[in-house]
User: Fold these one by one.
Assistant:
Number 1:
Amino acid sequence: MKSKTAIYPGSFDPITHGHLDIIERAAKIFDRVIVCVMYNSAKKYLFSLEERAALIRECVEPYKNVEVDCFDGLLVEYAQQQESNIIVKGLRAFLDFEYEFQMALTNKHLDNDIETFFMVTNNKHSYISSSLVKELVKLKGEVSDFIPHNVEEAMQKKFEEGCI
Ligand code: COA
C-alpha cells in the first residue's frame, strides 16, 4: 500500500495544545504528517513564519512521523509539491464549519484530487484560539493550560519587547 502523507496547515500564531492534540491524533492515523506554517492574508502575525515553525518543531519532537515546514503560497500548490492529496483540519465548534467548508471547497476547486479530513477538536480545547492566548498574555492572564512551556516563554519575550 502507498504511504499516506497528510498536510496539517495553519497560521499557528502561536501553536496551542488544541493544535498539538490534532497533530498527535493525525500522527496515529497517517504515515507521515507535515505541519505546514502558512499565511492567512486576513491576519496580522506576532511571530514570523520561521519563528512559528521553530516553536512547533520543539513541540513535535516526540512524534517521529511529524515534520514541520513553512510555505508562503497556495496550500494546494504545497500539497502537490509534497505529492500529497490529504489536508487535515481541526474543527472546534459549529462556528468553524462554514469557513472550513468554504476553504475545503475552494481547495477542491483548485485541485480536484485534494481531500480535506476534519478532526473534531478535543472538548478541553474547543474554545481556545491563538488570538485568545495572545489577549491573555497581553493582559497578564494565566496561559499555561493552553500553550506549551516553550511557547509561553517566547510569548513572554514578545511581551517584554512590547510586541504584544
Ligand atoms: N485547537 C485550538 N485552536 C484551533 C484549532 C485547534 N484544534 N484549530 C484551529 N484553531 C484556531 C487557530 O489558532 C486560529 O486562531 P486565530 O484565528 O485566533 O489565529 C483559528 O482557530 C482559525 O484556524 P484556521 O481556520 O486553521 O485558520 P488559520 O489562520 O490558522 O489557517 C490557513 C488558515 C493558513 C490554513 C489558510 O489561510 C491557507 O490555506 N492559507 C494558504 C493560502 C491559500 O491556499 N489560501 C486559499 C485557501 S482556500
Number 2:
Amino acid sequence: MSTSAVEGTPERDVVVQVTGLRKRFGPVEVLKGVDLTVLHGEVMCIIGPSGSGKSTLLRSMNHLEEIDGGRVELDGELIGYRMRGHRYVTLREKQLAAQRARMGMVFQSFNLFPHMTVMQNITESPTGVLKVPAAEAKSRALALLDRVGLADKANNYPRQLSGGQQQRVAIARALAMQPRVMLFDEPTSALDPELVGEVLDVMKGLAKDGLTMVVVTHEMGFAREVADSLLFMDGGVVVERGNPRDVLLNPQKQRTKDFLSKVL
Ligand code: ADP
Ligand code: MG
C-alpha cells in the first residue's frame, strides 16, 4: 500500500467502500451504521448470528435494497443513487442493472433458471446485458465450467445436478459477468454436508486467483484459512473486525466470545 504524491490521497485500490450504512424495515433498524472497506484482491468474511443483518448488508451493497442512510461506493462510484444537489436520487433501473453487473452475487438458494441449460444460464446475462457475441460467451462459459469442475455438464438442466453442482454453476454464472467483486451469501448453507467441500474448494481457488470476495458464512474453517479479514456482526452493527485468526482465537468483545462459543 502506498500513498500518492497528492498529500493525503490514499492510492490503495479500494473496490468497495461502505460508509455509515443504515437500513430499516418499517420501524426496525436492521443496519445501524455499517462501515467497511474491501481492497482489490481481498477476501472478507462476515459472520454473525441469524438476524444480525448480514444478508441485508450484502443486498444493500448492490442496491437490491433501498438504503436509509450512508453510502456504498464501487470503485469510487456511488451505488444506487446519484446526487442532485445534496439529495440522493435513486438511479434508473437500467443504470442499477449496469452497476449490479459489476458485483456478482451468489445466494444460499442457487437461483438458477430451471428452464435453461447450464450453458444458457451462464451465457444469458453476458449476451443479453453485456452484448458479448454468442460464440465468445459460450467459449468463456466453457472455461468457467472447467474452472468450477463441471465442464461435462454444459447441456444439463439444473434439476439434473446436485445442490453442490448447482451452486458451482451459480458461481460460474456470476463470474461470467467479470464482476469487480463477488458477494456470497451463505453459499453452502443449503447444501448437504458432504457437498459443502466441493463449493468451498471452488471458492478457495477463486481467492487464490486474486478475486475480490465478500463472503457471509458459517464455515469458520474457511474464514480462518482463506479470509484476509473477518467481520463479526450482531444487531446491525460490526462488533469486531480484524485478522481472522485474531478474531476467532482471541476475540476482544464479549458478544463475539458468546457467539464463537456457540459455533466453534
Ligand atoms: P441475517 O442475514 O444476518 O440472518 P437479515 O439481514 O436477513 O439477517 O435480517 C436482519 C433483520 O431484518 C431480521 O430481523 C429480519 O427479520 C429483518 N428483515 C430482513 N429482510 C426483511 C424484509 N424484507 N422485511 C422486513 N424485515 C426484514
Ligand atoms: Mg442471511
